[in-house]
Prior knowledge:
The protein has 142 residues and is an all-alpha fold. Helix content is 63%, strand content 0%.
Amino acid sequence: xxxxxQPNDERTRIREAMDRLLSGQPTVSNGSLTVAALAxxxxxxxxxxxxxxADLKNEFYERVRNETQQVPETEKRLRETVAxxxxxxxxxxxxxxELRQQVTLxxxxxxxxxxxxxxxxxxxxxxxxxPDNVLxxxxxxx
Length: 142
């Protein structure tokens, strides 16, 4: 049975791995400045780093930002996604405006067509036209 690593031992390994990655001297990872590389470098499961040691993850990203003057890869991806979504929203707003204008124009065109037509009056139904099972209302007498 293998002993469970102590949390302080993990934290020490994570901090040492941070130092190696930020100095550009990784030993076992690919050297990228990501949480995944940090976990590999510290020999800690990535989810342990994200859940148990979230403060160290945040510290790592802060150090990446301050010491290397780089934006973390995850932040770059999020910024790209936000830019794409903003462009999509702008395009959809433009399309909605165009559709609203089309609706207005079609409504006006329909009104002009209806106004220009002479609608024949509906003939009054006669008792002869009524089916056998329909009885007419009695006239109102005062």
